[in-house]
Structures are given as structure tokens and as C-alpha cells.
Amino acid sequence: MARDIPPTQPGAGQAPLSLELLVHGVGGTTPQIMLNDPRITRLCGDYTAGIYRRTDDVDAEQRPGAYHGKPVPDAFSWSNLTSGDGSRALWLLLLPFMVANLAYWMRPAADTPGLRRTYDILVRIIALSLTVLLVAAVSEVAVDLVAWQCAGQMTCIADKSWLGWLAGREPGQRLAIAAWVPLGLTMLLWWLSHRTWYAYESQAPIERDQRAAPDAPPLAGAGFWYGRRAVARLRAAHTAAGLLTVSVMVLVPALTRDQHSGPRLAAMGWALVTLLAALAGAAVAVTWSAGRSEDKLDHELDRTLVRFLLGGSVTALMATGAYVSWHRPGWRAQGHLPPSTAFCWLTLLQGALVVALGVTAVLMHRTQVRAERSGGRGRADDGMAAMRRIALHGLGGPAVAVLACGLGGILTGGMAQRVADWLDRGSTPGSGGNGVAGPPVLLSWQASTIPLVIAVVIVVAVAEGRRLWQRTKELEGSVPAQYPGESLHPERTRQIAGAQARAGLTDSAPLLVGVTAVAAVLLGAGALAGAWASGRVPGEATTQWPGVLHAGAEAAQGMGSWLVGASVVAMVALGRRAYRSAGARRTVGILWDIGTFWPRAAHPFAPPCYAERAVPDLTWRMTTWTAQYPSGRIILSGHSQGTVLAAAAAWQLDPATRDRIALLTYGSPLERLYGRWFPAYFGPAQLRQLHGELRAWRNLWRRTDPIGGPVRICGGGPDVDCPPLKDPAAYGRTPAYPLPAPILTHFDYQADPAFAVERTMLLVRLTQERAPSGLPLQDSAGRSSG
Questions:
Q1: DSSP code of residue 702
Q2: Angle at 444 between CA 441 and CA 448, to 5 degrees
Q3: Local structure of 73: helix, strand or coil
Q4: Which of 55, 189, 466, 547 lies at 20 to 30 Å from 390 by C-alpha?
Q5: How many angstroms separate the Cα of 31 from the Cα of each of 47, 608, 662, 682, 756?
């Protein structure tokens, strides 16, 4: 139950009260564990996210003298924003949308307005194509495979009594009825996006001066965590695109038939084509212009535009349904629906957009490299070292966009392949057995490339495994120097060296992403060329090839068909396990919490952004508490993903409040993951600026940590990074550690004695005043205390 604490200032001679605001990371750490006490009280917030305190410390503000020399711990619990019941595992099916949204935020750091706008527009159009791809795939299953192909063949419906009522209708009527399935999916996505917005992202940040300095980092923008208008515009555009896709899937077959049946129906059909084209142009235009207003809070909504897009698209779909249901004597369903060839054009469009995105990213990265080289000698060296650590030399966004398109292809292709296989009684989809022509040949060609992509990934994994073994051997020689005077044991040394080597695998992620993206592009281009040139599935198109190659093509087609179907099932199973098992959640939690940290700037149907609730919560708490207690200070203490939330919240504070904050990070991915993959937001310049505006900042890390690492802030001033903590704390049995000390890797930083020492030093620095020049004062030993 929330408690209101009346403000009380310390009396004369009393030290000001200090808070330690704890922010946990991935894994759903409970407030009881964070505070190390089963008796807790929620001070503010709700079950989803709230501030908790030990019950014995609830009235700490009324007796500050009892907390001399130590802070009052408060725990900010946000785990229920990303975890919950098993139904949220279905969000994993929205993974392509989330990955496309990630690509938006991975742009290089060059602040060139024209290139930045081009990059943003390209990602938004790619995201729109993914919505069209998903709705087209569902339409392919419901409208083409079921209503057009199977329901029109007596051999297919012979053992499917549930299709008997549909088989007796005309093809146009069957298409109109089946269109309700993709229509329902589109409206479900619209409803989920609308609902999760109000549940997660509708919390407005604290009102403050919106006039940002010219060199202010992007995360300091007053409206960065409030993209209400942009999301509403994108939601309307994507919903309209989905509805228009359904309309095209059912309109084109009827219009093709009407070209030979009379001018009246054909004229009606072309009028609908004109309407659909106009609405599609409007949806693309809205997506093109749906930029974010990050520098200010934008409460306005384009209600007229939203109503026009949604109302016009629904009206066009209803008119199309009435048109195709018109009686057409002698109309028979044969082969594929004509719009099935659109999958080739859609894939070609996605490829062209990704190439354009890659060119834009290269130009932006080169601009940033030139800017770093133009600095002073020392800063240029530091800047170039940081630039070399950026993932894929600025091509992280385009590579991730390729993965988003590939994941979309796997989901859509797997769905179509499995339904076709089920309707065709287990025959290879597309072989024509049982009268079913199967899905578009492109999906079969794309499925055939999946085994090759997996083979490439396996080769990279084997190479990384070999490098891991070599690295472990190298580190075995350096472990004894970390524990001088210990009696060495080869097995213990190998265990510690192996943990340090495995932690370095995280730095190989760009290689894996880059190789997979290149393989996906090359094999995808080959699949598109094969489908376009042959017009047949791989097994049929390669009958003239030598026996071994033909057998390999058939094997790849069959194996790929099963793999894409199994991947969909595996995604659902993995998602449900991730939200029921703590171990599985930690396994997939890194990507998931990174992906849902960012606002929905490219795709409105992506899973909701928890930071649009968590960052304002933290900002409100720190701002209001420091306003109530002008002499109070706050140590913002974050672990893992909590360090990212803490840094984002610190950027949102006004300068006066930020000057009363000290930042303590441990197991932090700020530079290792976010700085390398999102250089425009957590790059070296942004982190260096944050360091200069905070009263103090210390970062704890371990060599065995696969996620956290040093922050590497350069450019003078006090060091942020502590020396690497020993892990394990003791090599063998000692009086302080009579039992074997475990290797903690990413967890239990607070158990290390260095944590308490660094926290105490931060508390001392917080109580000191800055020098008139704005630089930190020095302690009696001459060391900088800021």
C-alpha cells in the first residue's frame, strides 16, 4: 500500500538524507531481493511498476539522523512491464516488427539532417512492408489455399467436412467470406497496439523547460519518451495497409475475370482499383511523414487523418467484398490467385530498400569518422578507437533490417507451407497433389534456402567455438597473476579462464549478425531469381540438372518446408517457456528487453515499450523527492538493463536536479551493447556528456561478465570505471572464503566488498560542493571527488 511521507528537513548539525534508488535488470528481481528484506512497503506506483522500501525505513525522512553515513535504499521494480502471464509469449510472434523497430534506433551518430531523415523514412517503409507481408501471408492461407484452391476441388474437400459449406458457393463469395480471417488479424493488431499504448506508453514525462541546448543528446529531449502522435499516425497507416492488402487479394481475381464478362463490372472494378491506389498512396505518405517530435511534448493527435485512413480503408474493403460477391456464371477457380505473384515484387522492394538503407548508413558513418578525425589529437585518437568498436562499422541497422525481413519471411512462409502441406495430405507443398497448387513458388524457394543459412550459422558457430577454446588456453596463463600467492590447481584455473573467454563471446555478436545478414541477402536474391525465372518449385525447376544437384534441391525444399514450419512452433514454445522459467527468460531476455526498451518509432505493431513508463516513473520520483528535500541527495544505483534506464532517466532531469545525482552502475551494457549498436544515443560523446553533468559516476565490472563491461569514457576528468572485480572473489579456500567461491559472472555485484566501498565514496562526493568553476572539489589526498 502506498504511503505519503511528509517532508521534513534535517535539523542543525544533521547530515542531509540520501537515497539509494535501486533499479534492477533483466530477470524480474523482486523488491524483497533488492532490499534484502521480506518486509517491504510500496511507497508509490502500482503492481506494474512501483517504488518500494523496507517497512522499517518508511519514515526515514522524519528521522534523517538515524541514517548518518548511509543511504536509505529504495527499490524501483519494473519487471511486470516486460513479464507476466504466459499469454504475453505470443508477443514473440511480433518479433519481426520488433527487430525492424530496432533497426530504426541503430542509425550512425552523424547528425546530418538530410541523411538522418532518409534513414528514418527508409526504416519506416521497410516496417510497412512487413505489415503488408504478414497480412498477405494470412490472406494467402485463408483466401488462396483454403477458399480458392481447396474449396474449389472436390478431391481436396473430400475428407474435410468443415469446408463443405464453403465448397458449394461461387469463387467470389468464397473469397469474400475468407477475407474475414486476414481482416480479423489486422483489426487484432490494431486493437493490441491501441490497448498496449494506454497500458504502457501513455504516461507523460514530467513537465519541464523544453528548450534543449543545441548540443544536448537525443535522450535529453522533453518528448523522447512520449511518441503518442507518431505511433497513432503509424498505427492508422499500417492498419490501412493491412485492410488494403486484403482488398487487393480478393479484388484482383474478380477483376481479372470481369475483363472478359462485360464492361459494367469491369468499370466498377477499376473504380475500386483507383480508390485502393489512392488510399495506398495516402498510407505510404503518412508513413513517410510520421516523424517523431522528440524535443517537445506533443499531445496533439491527427484525428481527422486517422479517421480518413481507417474509415476509407474499411469502406473500400466492404465495397470490394460486395463487388466480388456479385453473381458470375461459369466462374471456376484454377491454380493460384493472381495476386500471389505480388510476393516477388514485395521481396524485390524490400531488397531495394535495404540496399538504400545500407548506402545511407555508410554515408552517415563516414561523416562521423571525418568529424572524429577533425578533433584534437588526443580526442581524435579516443574517438577513432570508439568508432572502431561500433557494430559492423555503422551497418548494424541495415543488417538488423535484413534479419527483420528474413524473420518475416520465415513466419509467413512457415505458415503457408504448413497449411498447404496439411491440405495436400502430407505431399510436398506445391507438387500439385490432391488438386492443391500450393503456396506461391517464391515461398518454396525461400524455404529451400533456410538449410543453407543454418549451415552458414553453424560454420560461424564452429569457428567461434574454436576461437573460444584458443582464448581459454591463452587466458589460463594470465589467471595466476590475478590471484598472487595462491596454490594453483589446473582445473580451477581452466574454470576461471573459460568463464572469462565465454564472456568475450558477446563481442562476436556483430560477426554473427553480419554473416547471417549477408547470407540471407545472397540466398534471398537467388531464391527470388529462381522463382521468377522458373515459375515452379525448386524440385520441379531442377529436373534438368544433374542427379546430385536435383536431389539436393529436392532435399532442401523438403527440409526447408519443415524447418520454416517448425520455427513458428519453436518461437511460440520458446516464448511461453521464457515467461514461465527464470532460466529461459534470462536466455532470451537480453534481446527482448533491448528490443522493447526503445519506443515504437518504426512499427506500431511491435511489442510495447516499457521504458516509456519506466523512465518517466524514475524521473518523477527523483524530481519530486529532491524538490521536497532540497538538501537531499540520490545515488542512482542500476544493474544490467537497469543502468540503461538509469542513464535515460538522468538525461531527462533538469541540470539542477542532475547535479544532485550520483550514478552507480554495475554489470552495465551501456558501452558494450548500447554504445556499439546504438551509437547515436549511447555513443562516446553522449556518455562523456552525461558524465560531465552528473555529480559523480562509478562503474563496476568483471572480466567474466558476458553482458556488462567498462564504460570507457575518455576526454579527461575522473575515471568512471573501477578496476575489474575479482571473479571468483577467492581462487581457493581462505579464512574469508572457507567454502569455494562461485563464479558470479553477471550477478550479485552487491555481494562484492568493492560495492559498499564505491557507494560510500559516492555518498561522500554527493555531500561536497562543486568548485566555482563547475569542476569537482578534491579531497584531502588531492584526488578528484566529482
A1: B
A2: 140
A3: strand
A4: 466
A5: 11, 23, 21, 28, 19
pLDDT at 774: 43
pLDDT on residue 435: 59
The C-alpha cell that represents 81 in the structure block: 512491464
Of 754, 753, 729, nearest to 742 (Cα)? 729
Cell of 90: 505470443
Q: Divide the 786 residues of the chain into consecutive groups of 10 and give the mean pLDDT of each group.
A: 52 70 85 93 90 94 87 92 59 84 93 91 97 92 86 72 73 90 92 77 70 75 87 93 94 85 82 94 93 80 84 94 87 74 88 96 90 62 74 93 90 78 62 64 82 88 93 92 88 94 92 91 88 76 67 73 70 64 57 82 90 93 92 94 96 91 95 93 91 92 94 75 93 88 93 92 80 41 36
What is the pLDDT at residue 585?
56
Sorted by where each starts, the structural domains of the chain and their CATH numbers stand as: 18-82+611-766 (3.40.50), 340-601 (no CATH)
Distance in angstroms (rounded) separating the CA atoms of residues 97 and 540:
34
The angle, 0 to 180 degrees and rounded to 10, between the axes of the packed helices 547-578 and 441-476 is 70
**Secondary element (H or E) of residue 388:** helix 377-388
Note the pLDDT of residue 586. Answer: 55
Q: Count the alpha carbons within 13 Å of 4 in the hemisphere toward its beta carbon.
A: 1
Angle at which helix 342-373 crosses helix 396-423, to 10 degrees, equals 160
Cα angle value 671/673/678 (rounded, 5°): 85
Write down the residue that cell numbers 531476455 correspond to: 589
Can you tell me the distance from the alpha carbon of 118 to that of 115, in angstroms, rounded to the nearest whole number?
5
Q: Would you give the distance in Å from CA 684 to the centre of its chain?
A: 22
C-beta neighbour count of 737 within 10 angstroms: 14
Measure CA of the first residue to CA of the last residue in the chain; give whole Å: 38
Cell digits for 757? 566501498
- Report the run of H or E that residue 645 belongs to, with start and end: helix 641-651
3 state SS of 441: helix
Q: What is the residue whose three cell numbers read 474499411?
A: 314
Residue pair 31/74 in contact by the 8 Å Cβ criterion:
no
Rounded (10°) angle between helices 396-423 and 441-476: 130
Residue 7, classed as helix, strand or coil, is: coil
Q: How far apart are CA 501 and CA 504, in angstroms?
A: 5
Q: Across the strands, what pairs with 42?
A: 52
- pTM as predicted: 0.90
Q: Is the dihedral of CA 554, 557, 560, 566 positive or negative?
A: negative
CA distance 450 to 309: 37
Residue 7 CA: distances (Å) to CA of 41, 60, 374: 18, 10, 51
What's the order of all strands across the beta sheet hosting 72-77?
Answer: 40-45, 50-54, 72-77, 18-23, 633-639, 661-666, 696-700
CA distance 205 to 225: 7
Instruction: Enumerate residues 6+ apart whose C-beta is below 8 A from 11.
Output: 65
Query: In this structure, are residues 403 and 520 in contact, taking their beta carbons and an 8 Å threshold?
Result: yes
3-state class (DSSP) for residue 661: strand
DSSP state of 338: G
SS (H, E, C) 466-480: HHHHHHHHHHHCCHH
Q: CA 350, 354, 358: angle at the middle one, nearest 5? A: 175
User: Length of the chain in residues, anyone?
Assistant: 786
- Degrees (nearest 5) of the Cα angle 305, 307, 310? 105
